[in-house]
Amino acid sequence: MTTKKKRVLSGMRPTGPLHLGNLHGALLNWVEMQATYDCFFFIADWHALTSDYEDPGKISGYTLEIIKDWLSVGLSPEKSTLFVQSDIKEHAELFLIFSMITPVPWLERNPTYKDQMVQLNNKDLSTFGFLGYPVLQAADIIMYKANGVPVGVDQVPHVEITREIARRFNYFYGNVFPEPEAILTQTPKILGLDRRKMSKSYNNAIYLSDSPEEVTTKVSQMITDPQRARKSDPGDPGVCNVYEFHKLYSDPETTAGIAKECRSAEIGCVDCKKIMARTLLAALAPVHEKRDYYDSHPELVKNIIQEGCSKAGKVARQTMAEVRHVIGI
Ligand code: TRP
Ligand code: SF4
To answer: According to CATH, what is the number of the domain 212-291?
Structure first.
């Protein structure tokens, strides 16, 4: 007899195409989890609306792009349930129910909320929906009775609020929901082309959907050891972002050889990047191949999304039947 797999659930806001930072920070981990967990992964498009409500035009396009990114790196509709939040209207109903039992101070003291209010100062985030962001996230997680939520550290406060909401719900209405746990994903050391955190807003990212030519050009533009002005200067691989990529993509001998030749000024950054671009492209070749396939089969992608939403919808309808039953309305 097989024991029932534990369920994990995670989501991404469709605010742009995915890049190598997302690959190493989340996706590779998700792909691996498919072997051990019952996985639910979804596009949090209503969450994107909490900050982009003035300009929602790109959300649905990004949703499709991200699903193709997922499929191209190996998330599989056979192993995981891949779906879109706004297709499952039950999320909105559970959000509403949870909003009845969530004390506002829990939301006001959420560190992510306070951070974002300061950082995204070009947007008016003084909305009810933005304050309630973690309540919607709690509905996403609890709807599927997920045991684990693979996320980066920045999302831990949201999972914590989710646990508190689950506990409070159980306290009022009976033991319906498990308290989910955050499964921390390590954040990668790789940086963007300019050595800042890789991010679409810095315009320094290598995207999963970039063509091989674009990848090569971007690698050639990467900032290396900032102290190394010419080839005759010895370099320090320890502070070089190109070297971090070698550590991830090149074989150990090549990587060790590069460190040595960099320190002794035997290899120049131009050549070093050429080697890195080649190994990076080799590693991305299967991703690029799958991407081309899905790009040329849009009806297939549509079907995958439809099937995922139909699987998720069944679970959501069951949960909501239970919720309505215990509350009595
Ligand atoms: N807030 C998450 C982020 O910005 C996205 C998200 C929405 C999510 N709902 C979720 C993540 C549920 C995990 C589980 O990254
Ligand atoms: Fe970085 Fe390579 Fe240049 Fe050394 S030789 S500084 S590791 S790019």
So the answer is: 1.10.240.10
